[in-house]
From TrEMBL:
Stretches that traverse the bilayer: 12-37, 49-72, 84-101, 107-128, 369-388, 394-411, 423-444
Keywords per UniProt: Cell membrane, Membrane, Transmembrane, Transmembrane helix
Main subcellular localisation: membrane
Protein name: YjgP/YjgQ family permease
GO biological process, one term: lipopolysaccharide transport
InterPro entries, A to Z: LptG/LptF_permease
Membrane topology term: Multi-pass membrane protein
Organism lineage string: Bacteria, Pseudomonadati, Bacteroidota, Chitinophagia, Chitinophagales
Length: 481
């Protein structure tokens, strides 16, 4: 049964949660754009592509923004209630902190479930779309922009130099256009002035040139008897194809085999199929290496009986092989050994790559759950922390929230790196932050239950004042009269 107290707490929590969630999401989205700013600027992206990219990045960062929002909003909620002495009144009524936290714990469990469903069902699709769009943007050429006094070579097969551009960005002076197609001889256009514009369909760049010359050389390169043509003109129109500047659409299927694009069910199927690959590698090793051991073909059923015979004096290699064949036998033996070594090295590299991909699938499988559990863990830290510091607003709560979230993020990053580099197991690496932060949450909860003065400035001020007074007395006692 939902009581008025539960409604009060949930109502006090909802506003800060949505506000901090939007702030956290904005910060994480901006972090992405700061990271890829060099790949995005100057590409001439249309507004629809930009909004699509922002949408994908926002959806991708939702599972990471939820734990941060829960941490900050829980500190703010309990800090506001403590600052207004509502928390003191509730405790005076005989209601414990754990009972007080119960409605928000239920809400947090619901948010954790939403985070898991989001990570499992939506994030793989968003990852697929985001990677395809990000690839298209990165490989797109910079937007078309010819500056005066600079040789511009982004148009395939041409180099353009403008002496001057007027303020209208269309009228140009002292134009030089050099055609650099390797299949042709030297061709060049020189004009006093012109008008530069893009065709209405944005497919071509049009140069309308005035008062100039066109120089062309025909004939095989390097031969003296070549034909040189000079053509004067009063008006000349030149078109340049701009199709290479457009962003091409890459099929999503190009990225669908990455582990990040799979759900829990798909990851389980992929991991199960990889486990059966060990048998395939074993058979492949037998097939590829056994072909080099030709002496195995001559093994017979009497080999076991021969092994039981009394040992005879072994003869050396030099006694068995004639001198004329020693060099040839050694060369063939070395060649066989090198071939076996190369085959085994190739097989080993393939097996290591298979293990790396398998670990990556295990990492992504664990990630689906770690970010969901992180919502509960950070709430366990934020709620008792807010009741201890008893400060609302965005000041003190924000400082503590950033500190604990940085610890959580660093432990997550280091744990994942350790798992990828096989320093630790995948389970230990991916759950490292949870294992470290749960004891902190339990410690803070116990301190909050006992009304600890852990973050009270006055407590520390009184403590150090007593210490100073104690040292003052000791000094007075030890001073000789």
């Amino acid at each position: 049964m939902i009581k008025k107290l539960d409604k009060l707490i949930v109502r006090a929590f909802v506003g800060p949660f949505f506000a901090t969630f939007l702030i956290s999401l904005f910060v994480l989205v901006m972090q992405f754009f700061w990271l890829y700013i060099d790949d995005l600027v100057g590409k001439g992206l249309d507004i629809f592509t930009i909004f699509r990219l922002i949408g994908y990045v926002s959806a991708f960062n939702v599972p990471l923004a939820l734990p941060l929002a829960l941490l900050l909003s829980s500190i703010m909620t309990f800090g506001n209630l403590g600052e207004s002495f509502e928390l003191v009144a509730i405790k005076a009524a005989g209601i414990s902190l754990l009972r007080f936290m119960r409605p928000l714990m239920v809400v947090t469990i619901g948010i954790s479930g939403i985070a898991f469903l989001f990570s499992n069902n939506i994030i793989p699709v968003v990852n697929l779309k985001l990677n395809a769009l990000k690839y298209d943007i990165i490989v797109t050429k910079p937007a078309f922009d010819i500056k005066e006094g600079v040789f511009y070579d982004k148009l395939e097969g041409f180099v353009i130099k403008l002496g001057k551009k007027e303020k209208d960005d269309s009228t140009i002076r002292s134009v030089i256009i050099y055609e650099r197609n390797p299949g042709l001889q030297d061709r060049m256009l020189v004009a006093e002035s012109g008008i530069m514009s893009v065709t209405p369909d944005k497919r071509f760049l049009q140069f309308k040139l005035f008062n100039g010359w066109r120089y062309e050389e025909n004939g095989p390169r390097g031969v003296k008897a070549t034909e040189f043509i000079r053509l004067g003109f009063k008006e000349y129109k030149k078109l340049f194809d701009l199709s290479s500047f457009k962003m091409n659409r890459t099929e999503d299927s190009l990225f669908k085999y990455d582990a990040k694009m799979l759900s829990v069910r798909q990851l389980g199927i992929a991991i199960d199929s990889m486990k059966h690959m060990d048998t395939v590698f074993y058979k492949r090793a037998q097939r590829e290496v056994a072909s080099y051991y030709t002496f195995e073909r001559y093994a017979d059923s009497n080999w076991a009986a021969v092994q039981k015979l009394p040992p005879t004096k072994a003869r050396s290699f030099n006694e068995l092989v004639p001198d004329t064949l020693k060099r040839d036998v050694e060369d063939r033996a070395i060649s066989q050994i090198n071939s076996i070594k190369s085959a085994m090295q190739l097989l080993s590299n393939d097996y290591e790559e298979k293990q790396r991909v398998e670990r990556k699938h295990y990492i992504e499988l664990n990630r689906k759950f770690t970010l969901s559990v992180a919502c509960l863990v950070l709430f366990m830290i934020g709620a008792p922390l807010g009741s201890i510091i008893r400060k609302g607003g965005l000041g003190t709560p924000l400082i503590f929230a950033i500190a604990f979230f940085v610890i959580f993020h660093l432990l997550n990053t280091f744990g994942e790196k350790f798992a990828k580099q096989e320093v630790t197991s995948v389970g230990f690496g991916m759950w490292l932050s949870t294992m470290v932060l749960i004891p902190i949450g339990i410690f803070l909860t116990s301190k909050a239950l006992s009304d600890s003065q852990l973050f009270n400035k006055e407590f520390y001020f009184r403590f150090f004042k007593k210490v100073k007074r104690l040292f003052g007395k000791n000094k007075a006692v030890t001073t000789p009269s």
